[in-house]
């Protein structure tokens, strides 16, 4: 246990010069509504607007100089594409990004801003993987998975580590569940740096593969995932699932209306822009108020990359 704790401390030390230490905000009104003390770790203020900058940075920094010179590659339609591109640019490492041709132009533009070299392909997982493999063979770049990579997982856990440094007496940390990298890293941080702090996930009912996986003990998939929380449509992997199985206490499922209501509360009451996935943990806390009543609760706001062109104004 001491060895694993020390390992996480080294990860935080490694990435700190390259990321923002994001603020922790609170809201008296939301505390009253939830009947508890809520502490929001605002990764919407992270570089490139999401927690994924942490994992991408750690994964690149762990590579040898020879591997760095050949670059890194991933397939992603969203935040990790941007995170790996920006992290690579700041470390002078080439970044090759495979994106589905259906990805929003705003996301492609962001990747290009960070000097990521985009290759488009059809949106199926098979096409993404085959395209990434082909580029890897041509360039010798190292593949970095958005969530199913131990260095990425440990990097994502540094958000919860910072939160616990600011608020060491948290009873719970609640975070959204998508591909599993954030919740796996958060669960390890809660285990090694909290004082009997439990990690709980929030997940849309429409994409509840992690909830089902925790129940069945094996990785489940979604046939469809029609949720406003588009960042949470990906599934767990063989690297993060064992960590989740051992260290996550519970996953709370929330409806689309509950997510929208929580999203509106954060925008209106906290005056910060967050993406729908980030509202899922608050929705979970408000849904299960009795569980969290009079406790100290940390919430990971995972990101703030909203496609403003989709808004009515």
UniProtKB/TrEMBL annotation:
Coiled-coil boundaries: none
UniProt xrefs under CDD domains: Thr-dehyd (cd01562)
Pfam family, one: PALP
Keyword Lyase included in the entry's annotation: yes
Xref: InterPro entries: TrpB-like_PALP, TrpB-like_PALP_sf
SUPFAM superfamilies: Tryptophan synthase beta subunit-like PLP-dependent enzymes (SSF53686)
Needed cofactors: pyridoxal 5'-phosphate
Any one GO molecular-function label of the UniProt entry: ATP binding
Record-annotated Tryptophan synthase beta chain-like PALP domain positions: 15-303
Transmembrane intervals: none
The organism's place on the tree of life at top rank: Bacteria
Keyword field: Lyase, Pyridoxal phosphate
GO biological process per UniProt: D-serine biosynthetic process
Cross-referenced PANTHER family: SERINE / THREONINE RACEMASE FAMILY MEMBER, SERINE RACEMASE
Stated family: Belongs to the serine/threonine dehydratase family.
Protein name: Threonine dehydratase
